[in-house]
Amino acid sequence: MVALRTHWQQIQNYIWLVFGGACLFFALIFWAVTDTKELVEVEKKAETEVELQIQPEKVSAMNHLGALFDEVKPLDMTTRAVATAQHESEFRGTKFVNEQKKAYAIELFRVSDEAILKSFLKKHPDRSNFLYLRLTGEDHAEQYVLLYGTYRNSSDAKQALADLKVTLPASVKPVAVQIEQYQPFVNDLGSDELKASSKLYAVNLKTAPLPKIDEAQIAAKRAEVQAQQAAAAKAAATTTTTVTRRDADGNVVNVQQSQSNADTAHSKTAAPQQEVTDPFN
To answer: In this predicted model, what pLDDT tens digit does every residue of 36-86 receive, in sequence order?
Structure first.
């Protein structure tokens, strides 16, 4: 049985092989008799309005196609960083470097941590000649450089370096440098610019003479107020009496009103209005 099954499988394999070879042979014959020059490209025309609406939109050529140029703005490298309430008053930025780029200064040392530089400055009571910058760049690690003084030329800076009286460790060697070399690496807003932007205004107060008080006018006004109060009290003390006469059916026959002063009355408390009805009429 096993031998017969194996023999039948071989026959099936030969049949598939012959069928595949026949298909390849007919494909070669069809390719040989077909002339590619007779092929004509036919453009299908839209038959309905629906097909016209779903046609692909033609996109005009543009330089930033698909780059989201308007949504994602390019980084402005000219923008200066502002860090308020972090630097000392001796911190300087691009304004100082641009104005003093031809001048010279004494570079005392460089550190990567600003806290070390601040600690050094706090140990010196006279900090008028100290300045420091923050150096950053694409290929430059962040550093803080401490400078001492500004000089017109190199000879003045070297002379000041020889007479320098700042106490430094033996491993620190200060040098005279031109400020222009820091220009590519400084992109900050200095403390001097922040102070200049916040203007202070002084308020000058002048003495103004007090108006003179006229006692006669005050007395006349006081008398007028007292008279008005007395008239109002007198009007409030007047009693108005209304007598209404009605007949047996309750119809109003006669109404009489009379006023009397409370001073002539037995009672000092007067009702503002009284209505008396005669029950016998």
So the answer is: 566 566 666 655 555 555 555 554 555 555 555 566 666 655 555 555 447
CA–CA separation, 184 and 192 (whole Å): 20
Per-residue exposure over 171-186, b if at least 16 CB sit within 10 Å of its own CB, e if not: eeebebbbbeebeebb
Domain 94-197 belongs to what architecture?
A: 2-Layer Sandwich (3.30)
Looking at residue 60, the DSSP 8-state letter turns out to be P
Q: How confident is the model at residue 195 (pLDDT cuts 50, 70, 90)?
A: low
Neighbours of 104 (CB within 10 A): 24
Per-domain residue ranges of the chain: 94-197, 229-278
For the chain, give the number of residues: 281
Separation between Cα atoms, residue 242 and residue 278, nearest integer Å: 12
Give the 3-state secondary structure of residue 167: coil
Distance CA 132, CA 121 (A): 10
174-192 tens-digit pLDDT: 999 999 999 999 988 888 7
Q: Which of 145, 150, 160 is nearest to 105 (CA)?
A: 150
